[in-house]
Target: Lipid A 3-O-deacylase (PagL)
Amino acid sequence: MKKSALIACLLGCLLVPAANAEVVEGSQFWRAAVVGTLGLTLAVNPLGADSATVETGYGEEVAAHRLAWRWQLQEHPLTTFLTVEVHGQVALEYWDGQSAEQNRDRNNLLVLTPVFRLQPASAWLPYLETSIGAALMSASSFPATGHNFGQNYQFEDTLALGWMLGREGRWDLALRYRHYSNNGMSRSNNGIDFNTLAVTYRY
Model:
């Protein structure tokens, strides 16, 4: 039941943004294959991840949709009431940008990130997360929205506030702010910011 709900979230994130997309020959078959593969990956968890996250948001005329897997690497109690958790995260992300003139561009990203979480002992209190990771983009520019990222390699900075849900804490809901830029490695460094909503399920 719980995994089915997570898969439903994934299907919504992948299919709803495509409702207004132009029809391309073979695109429906390709999308069905992607959704089916990712859905089965979530259900079976062949990578042995500790958790999976579905995330969606918007920023600067670009919609972002993400699926991420995490593995908890370390746990360090700071006090009786507060623990620092260290996670490794792998994420697949899809951007869909559309300008006021209806010009459209897309981008695919692979993101590798260490994540640090300040987790209170009480499940009623929110946790804080921060991370700095590396992102590989399929395209270094978004002509439709005027973004020029300068290169395909970017840094990703994230700050999040979230809450654990359910009796066993298997679910959590988080609000995230994410920023991408090349940190001055290229002359063009527009960068981009996103505000997102993330739902996580712990296996």
User: Anything to note?
Assistant: Residues 50-202 form a domain with the Porin fold (CATH 2.40.160.20).
